[in-house]
Amino acid sequence: MVIVVLYSLLMLHTALIVALTRPTIALFLRRRRMILRWSQHLTALDHKRRQPRMVIHSLIRQHHLHPLLTIPPQRRGNRIGIIIGVAALVLLIAGGGIFTLLRPGSRNSPVTASPTVNATATAHVNATATATAAVEDPYTHSGTLTLADPLSDNGKGQGWDVNSNCAFIDGAYHAIAPNPSFGDYCIAGSTDFSNFVFEVQMQVIKGDGGGIDFRDENTATANKYYDFYVWQDGSYELDVVNGGSAKTLSSGSSVAINQSLNQTNVVAVVAQGSLIKLYVNHQLITSATDSTYSHGQIGVEANPFVNNGHPTEVVYSNARVWML
Q1: Of the candidates 151, 210, 214, 215, which has an alpha carbon nearest to the alpha carbon of residue 183?
Q2: At a CB cut-off of 8 Å and minimum separation 6, what does 121 contact?
Q3: E strand or H helix that includes residue 16
Q4: What's the CA gap between 49 and 84, in Å, rounded?
Q5: Residues in the chain with pLDDT values less than 70
């Protein structure tokens, strides 16, 4: 492309020179022929002994020539117009060639979207996907998120118990059972759910195990609820409790449970009518059918082994409830 532009400029320069000098050359040749004719006249007159001055003046008047026989200047208006026109044409062609060379993507480069636009669109899609995943019920995929509590304090209005056995410590909720003969639970007193999904993250940092309580109906005479125990040896148990008595609905062990102290497990229950499904780390480990309680509060607990138990402390965070 550079060669084409330079060749065009060279041709235009040559054309300009020819255009500007052609009239001058033609006029010079015409004047030269006239001077030759004058010389011939003067030679003839010299033979006839006439005065050359008068002859010259006669020839000047006859041919309307300048006394000094100089070539009169060209008319400036036409020449300036030609120069301006040719110069404008040269600039137009040269400018177009330079623009073509410098314009990004002019040499068959692929058209690509702006990185900023792509980054913005990708960020928007990722943010939307993250927000959707955060509120989606991962168990039934039909629940509506009703409670989302990081359990860093009691500021979400759920009314979690706060006492010697239930405390917010270092941004998490602790359930503590100091006596190895008894378990202790911590209830969210402002809650009441019937058909729901309840999920919470737990970590046994001392002792034996923990778990969740649901459909808790505390009365003046007896505590009534379901509880789902998960121990750090990989075992679990589902009970229905009525005061001082408890009935086991399901028990066993599961490889889905992360064993040993300081291991994190996400425990969950899906309670819909009389059907109860229990999950650990988003894996279904057991289910049962029971219609003893239909609604109530939710809670968490610290639970030593029934035999050879130890003082136990369990840390909870990120409680969520979806209504079904």
Answers
A1: 210
A2: none
A3: helix 2-47
A4: 54
A5: 1-134
Residue 254 DSSP label: -
Nearest alpha carbon to residue 206 among 281, 300, 302: 302
Q: Name the phi and psi angles at 186, rounded to 5.
A: -130, 120
Choose among 210, 177, 219, 233: nearest CA to 299.
210
Return the number of other C-beta atoms located less than 10 Å from residue 216's C-beta. Answer: 24
- Looking at 102, 136, 163, the residue that finishes a domain is 102
Range of the domain at 193: 144-323
Sort 267 into a burial class: Cβ within 10 Å, 0-12 / 13-18 / 19+.
buried
Q: Judge whether 134 lies within some domain.
A: no
- Asked whether residue 117 is assigned to any structural domain, the reply reads no
pLDDT of residue 55: 44
Instruction: Give domain status of residue 58, yes or no.
Output: yes
Paired tokens of 56 = 């010259």
15: left (phi over 0), alpha (psi -120 to 50) or beta: alpha
Number of domains in the chain: 2
Q: How far is CA 135 from CA 138, 143, 200, in A?
A: 9, 9, 14
